[in-house]
Fold this protein.
Amino acid sequence: MAKKVLTICPYCGSGCQIYLFVENGEIIKAEPGPGRTNENELCLKGYYGWDFLKNPKRLTARLERPLLRYNRTDEFKEVSWEEAIGFAAKKLADIKAKYGPNAIMCTGSARGSGNEANYIMQKFVRAAIGTNNIDHCARVCHGSSVAGLAATLGSGAMSNSIPEIENTKCVLIFGYNPAESHPIVARRIIKAREKGAKVIVVDPRFTEQAKISDLWLALKNGTNMALVNALGNVLITEKLYNKKYVTNYTDGFEEYCKAIEKYTPEYVENITGIEAKTIRQAARIYAEAESATILWGMGVTQFTQAVDVVKGLSSLALLTGNLGRENVGVGPVRGQNNVQGACDHGALPALFPGYQSVEDETIRRKFELAWGVKLPAKPGYHLTEIPRLAKEGKVKAYYIFGEDLVQSDPDAAGVREALASMELVIVQDIFMNKTALHADVIFPATSWGEHEGVYSSADRRFQKFNKAIEPKGDVKPDWEIISLLSTALGYPMKYNNTEEIWEELRKLCPLYAGVTYKRLEEFGSILWPCPDENHPGTKYLYEGNKFATSSGKGLLFAAEYRPPQERPDEEYPLILCTVREIGHYSVRTMTGNCSALQTLSDEPGYIQINPKDAEKLDLADQELAWITSRRGKVIARILITERVNIGTVYMTYHWWIGACNELTIDALDPISKTPEFKYCAVKLELIADQVFAEDYVQQEYSNLKKKMFC
Amino acid sequence: MNNFVVADSEKCIGCRTCEIACVLAHSKDGSLSKLSAKTFCPRLKVVKAATLTTPVQCRHCENAPCVAACPKQALVQNDHSVQVVKGACVGCKACLAACPYGAIEIVIAGNSTPRRVEVIKCDLCRDREDGPACIKTCPTNALHKVYNLSFDRRINQRKR
Ligand code: SF4
Ligand code: SF4
Ligand code: SF4
């Protein structure tokens, strides 16, 4: 008889509950569980995304023993945990003594490791190393949402829960393709539409979600701010806004009106490429709905003008009173399964767990008392600044936990250069990856499925995930590895299980104080804030329209439109925008090792192009082509489709050979430091000899695998 | 009248979960690890056109052109559906050319001589206890089985 283990899907931020069926110590299948968000449904990643645990060696090898090399030109050798930890501790201590604690940078992990591991990591960074240099991949995705919403509403998370989407009367989807990135959120949108909601999609591509919409605003790439301002302009000039709400609950109305004055729909027609009357129509539908929800994704946050746009979107919700009650709100829908959790638990350079500022003296005192050491007050470095800081000689050691920066961050060549310049690179992961190729020491960790803890899904929802199988090899849970290293560095940490860690952290975080393992098991999930053990959790934020800002009011905000940084020109005439595809996930170490998902699509990945552009370049569907930017050159397969706009090409960032981040630019939003993944200039070239090209791809693939199975 | 599975393209997100479910439902042990791009042959295929995404599969036609075209009676009307008679196919591909939906594929199974050919088409998962696997797994409930056309609420709604 198979054992049935209830856990949480390790992929997207929807946080679906899954049953894993285990027989003879192996998972044999997955079935949907009764989660409040997924209601017994799963997407293909949930159903078929667990067999990477069987180490099928399709893309890369599972790490099963600590690996070490004393010289970067040497091969890795398998060593004992003592030797690996001892080496890392000694090197870290030396670097700290020589350059100071701020020369050491660490990451949290938004993936399978869980909230407790992130708590332990940031504690290690702050208490054992003595710096706030911790950040994680939220920086390259929803960092802009966190910064923008914190300023206008006071909390960077989704205001309302995912199930509520089903009962809203209007969904404004901005730069977000839930059909591809969160199928289980898309399911709620489809249900809302069946119940009569109007769905408006803003996207330059005709996405799957645009197909399932009532109005599609096909804006030109990189013109978000102009459009958001124009929507605000219509709300004001057509008196569609909620006067009473604005007077009672918001600040900054006069400045807002001034800022959006010139952004009439007619004025932005040329900038955005959308007809004025369509913009008016969208604003009217949004304003006139009795309840309306705005959802957005990377199409908003991955621009050099991103925080401003987030603030502008939240202003639309404030103007129409679509906050502080059920079935409305603003939703930056988090991508990775636990990116909300890594943010929740202090894997950020300026915040302790529970969104408590490192600069606030009273808060710092509280943590100093609990942890028994003096803590640094100065915020740490941002993840995306590290390549520059490494070049300047300011960062000498990098402890990378559950991330693959070479694959996920912009300008891969720049990232590799930064890693090469470090005196110490520690990688802690479950799979060998492109970043680990630059490491000195590699710590093998247990995977999702092999350990337990708590995840936070995109809607602030804590859910307990459970262990299904025993890990193979000499691997340890992330929190245990970090504790060992901390102890070796002279700051002892010892926990017996994740519940002990959870108990420590909830006492330090008023937002989560009432959440216990027992209550999570009892209720299935709890949404923070949950201040005490009798509190049911909080489905939607800002009840009574009390905002978490210093004035208690929501801030209205608009900014002048700024175009993206690297515009197409004669040499690089096309815009490259990076996107997602449903069957693969993030840096693909997991899904690339899943049989079903790899069967549906494999290397080198596609580049989507409009038939008109393809014709100009003499490119044929399914052929291979070179794509070049000022930073790099890769090969990918051509996919000709009318769904994409003329002048822009689209690549998904999961592919290892068609790796679009060899091409992207590290231009950053000035506030959130989130890179402009959605816009850089490239050129495409036909490869005349397709036989050579196919061989080249095969050769590259097998070279890559050789490196991964060192 | 025959039964068939139909998709609502207004709900289909093109995720292809149904394709994998279909293949696993027709594999010997339902094991994932044997899947590969070379042998992957779902009985429904998700088609993405300029403005439409929808899975396409056998409609179990009442006057089935494939049944009429097959010289070997390898395709028959049976149990309110069009079904394949095991072992009867010779691989002449007449059905493939006749099907208006392109819902049939012929594959060579194994490398034995004489060659063993198989007709692959939707069989409504008739050997599966839970009924059609595609319907069960689709995350947006875009698929459903039509038992009787005139009583099908969802189809009637669309007619209006
Ligand atoms: S929607 Fe997200 S959480 Fe749910 S099964 Fe798919 S990947 Fe997993
Ligand atoms: S599983 Fe459902 S939504 Fe996905 S492709 Fe199939 S029919 Fe469409
Ligand atoms: S009913 Fe069964 S055989 Fe037919 S398409 Fe669906 S899963 Fe495949």
Observations:
- The pocket of iron/sulfur cluster (ligand 3) is lined by residues B 5, 21-22, 25, 43-44, 57, 122-125, 132-134 (CB under 6 Å).
- Chain A has a mean pLDDT of 95.
- Chain A has 25 helices and 28 strands.
